[in-house]
Amino acid sequence: MSIPPSVLTIAGTDPSGGAGIQADLKTFQELKVYGMSVITSVVAQNTTGVQNIHHLPTGMLHDQLQSVLTDMPVHAIKTGMIANRDMMEVIADAIPKTNAPYVIDPVMVATSGDPLIDEEARGVLKEQLLPIATLVTPNIPEAEFIIGNSINSLADMKEAAISIVHTYGPKAALIKGGHLQGKAIDFLYDGSQLHTFAADRFDTKNTHGTGCTYSAAITANLSNGLHLIEAVQMAKHYVTEAIKHSFPLGTGNGPTNHWAIREERVK
Ligand SMILES: Nc1ncnc2c1ncn2[C@@H]1O[C@H](COP(=O)(O)OP(=O)(O)O)[C@@H](O)[C@H]1O
Ligand SMILES: Cc1ncc(COP(=O)(O)O)c(N)n1
Q: Which positions fall inside the Pyridoxamine kinase/Phosphomethylpyrimidine kinase domain (predicted)?
């Protein structure tokens, strides 16, 4: 039996199972890579919003990272919610030593509108994490914060992708269009060219965890050695099917469906 690539997520939790670490591990499992996880914050949240947040002590974040990195191979890494400056600095120090592709989902606010990271952390994310990233995957509000301008059109999204790469130095930026109207269109700028990923928009409120799922799928695909464009293409298909077949669990924004692709394979 061959050993699968091992992939690490560094993120906050979601006990309702739709977003954060839980969404990442479900995605890794579906895409047949070995999932590992380092927790930054324990978040009491569900489909209706965030009820409470407990940030782990920075030393505990450091020790979890050491437990993984001193013992396990890491073929790709993603980060999600990183609540404050101290945590960002521990992570910014550890990641480059792995030489693994690094996908940053610059999580700032939950789908419900509740903030997940503090004001200072947003700035540190730009200055310390973006320069070491293989790919950053902001939604529109996150991209607006990073570039400091509003984004109202597809042309604005393209400009934002280019500007983020040239200003902050990640190798690539993927701007997600979930927050605009019309087709669900995302733009990837890889440092030389723009690439478009488009899918039908489904009329559903069950979008809790879509960003986490998407970036986790890209990370899993990169760990398998796929080229960035192919990795995003396959992940876009994964998240689109997961939204199309999402279920109305809970009373708020329900979760995505990680079995959608499996069922497609069986057909
Ligand atoms: N209603 C929808 N139908 C189809 N695709 C969607 C829908 N909403 C979001 N998407 C897609 O889901 C992915 C996650 O995007 P987005 O919702 O913008 O991120 P986030 O969860 O970080 O806010 C993107 O590929 C986006 O185009
Ligand atoms: C711990 C954690 N991380 C991230 C999100 C954002 O989720 P989404 O993918 O819906 O933007 C979340 N709600 N909770």
A: 14-257
CA of 254 to the centre of ligand 2 (A): 12
Render pLDDT for 148-174 as a digit per residue (tens, 0 to 9).
999 999 999 999 999 999 999 999 999
Per-residue exposure over 93-131, b if at least 16 CB sit within 10 Å of its own CB, e if not: ebbeebebbbbbbbbbebbeeeebbeeebbebbbeebbe
The residue contributing the CA closest to ligand 2 atom 4 is 20
Q: Does domain 6-266 have CATH number 3.40.50.1400?
A: no
Strand (E) or helix (H) holding 263: helix 260-266
DSSP state of 125: I
Say how many residues make up the chain: 267
Give the mutation target among 27, 81, 112 for probing the ligand 2 site: most ligand atoms within 8 A of CB. 81
Phi, psi values for residue 24, rounded to 5°: -65, -50
- Decide if 207 is catalytic: yes
Summarize pLDDT for 97-137 with one digit per residue, the tens: 999 999 999 999 887 888 899 999 999 999 999 999 999 99
What residues of the chain score a pLDDT lower than 70? 265-267
For strand 135-136 and strand 194-199, is the pairing parallel, antiparallel, or unpaired?
unpaired
The ipTM value here is: 0.98
Catalytic residue among 134, 207, 240, 256: 207
- Which residues pair with residue 42 across a beta bridge? 54
Residue 196 annotated as catalytic = no
198 closest CA partner among 215, 176, 219, 214: 176
